[in-house]
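One chain is below:
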Amino acid sequence: MAALALLFAFFAAARAHDVSQSQSKIDVDGREVRVLFTLNPMQLRDPVTPEQVPQAIESIYASVQQHHLVRTPAAPVRVRLEKYELLANYLLRMEILYVFAQDVREIEITSTMGQIMPADHNHLMSVRLNGTLHEAILNAGSPSAKFTGVQATNWQTLWRFTRLGVEHIFTGYDHLAFLLGLLVATTTMGSLVKVITSFTLAHSITLALATFNLVNLPSRLTESLIAVSILYIAAENLLNFRVMKRYYITFFFGLVHGFGFSTVLRDMELPRSSLALSLFSFNFGVELGQITFVLLIFPLVQDLVKSGWSRLKPAVSVGVGCLAVYWFVQRAFLG
């Protein structure tokens, strides 16, 4: 019963939740600090549709000012919303200008956006200060970051992006649904190793290519194809057919998922000097999260199969397939 409860809880969480994140690009120029702040107003506790944004912009701006704090040793002498625009996928971008009495030498950013958006909200940010580009991920566990003209150490970058990769897996329910669809139809440890290895190799390739801007696909296309990959795996499980060996098709779909993983790093516009380390650390975190999920779920699946519960594969596959249809419609037609 505990196993069933875990599976049903996964389906409920995945159906109800989309990964919540906002971004800010901060440029410090003498006394001026310019912030390009991007969020999805549909993810606010009181959701705002794109059509409602013009009427609600002052309220949204006030909430951002309250939960995205820009601090220096001195208080700003003027803060104003310069302009805003609606982007694709329901995103709203605001350009906010802070003016200080003296040149800004250090700056601290605090995000409590999780209080007005989903609690596991991540705020991705980059700060250009004194010719140095910094990056950080703020959330409930790490709400603040302080910057000077000194570049972050390699250890700080390694830890920051490894943690982000782990968090990205455990809040990326579409990727977990894909893995779950694979696990319920995998019967041996040898098959599991082949499937997971092919998926890992594939998404690592496209993650690197996309992060270095060598190959890129539109976000809507990528996210829609990820939903299609989940639906295909569910269909294979239910109909008991194979066009090709499972690890071949897993490699193909892994290439698609890699583009999805890359969105986080590309949105941060990382400095070239730390891009390779950031990419390695993020991918390492993704693999840690993925391996942890597999080690938790695969023995559970095997125990249920050995206990004679023959309906596990079709039940899970139907649930995963329904989620895939929901995600595809949402991303291809509503996003």
